[in-house]
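Technical annex, item 7. During the second reporting period the consortium partners agreed on a shared format for inverse folding records so that results from different sites could be compared directly. Each record opens with the tokenized structure and is followed by the designed sequence. A conforming record, contributed by the partner at site C, is shown below for reference.
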């Protein structure tokens, strides 16, 4: 009986589950919710959100790049000091997603390789890990 318990413990310890990705990564925007509640999924060009370990966040829009700072506590996010380059005009979709990101996002949740940023309308932005 002692050996069965020991082998069971050894087996359980040797199993490795897929861990959730960490926030400190590069993420690709898959979808977001507009103020009206409609879901936008047809994002014409990739929009990237990169959370660095040094509390900097970079948002790569169609043309411009925006940077700012973030702090996190548990699953809460706080953003500050955003500034964007002004090379040219970004698409309406990328501008909407960026404004939602900076104005509404309060909570983040990671499930596997999916990052959900939650705001006033539930899941405001859904992103996938860039590998």
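Designed sequence (site C submission):
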């Amino acid at each position: 009986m002692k050996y069965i318990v020991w082998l069971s413990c050894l087996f359980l310890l040797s199993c490795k589950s897929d861990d959730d990705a960490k926030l400190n990564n590069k993420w690709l925007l898959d979808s977001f919710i507009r103020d009206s509640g409609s879901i936008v999924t047809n994002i014409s060009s990739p929009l990237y959100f990169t959370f660095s370990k040094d509390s900097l966040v970079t948002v790569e829009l169609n043309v411009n790049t925006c940077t700012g700072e973030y702090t996190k506590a548990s699953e809460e996010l706080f953003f500050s000091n955003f500034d964007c380059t002004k090379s040219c005009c970004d698409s309406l979709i990328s501008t909407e997603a960026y404004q939602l990101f900076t104005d509404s996002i309060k909570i983040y949740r990671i499930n596997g390789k999916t990052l959900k940023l939650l705001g006033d309308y539930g899941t405001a932005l859904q992103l996938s890990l860039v590998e």
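The first helix runs from residue 2 to 14. Residues 1-17 have pLDDT under 50 and may be disordered. All partners now use this format for quarterly exchanges.
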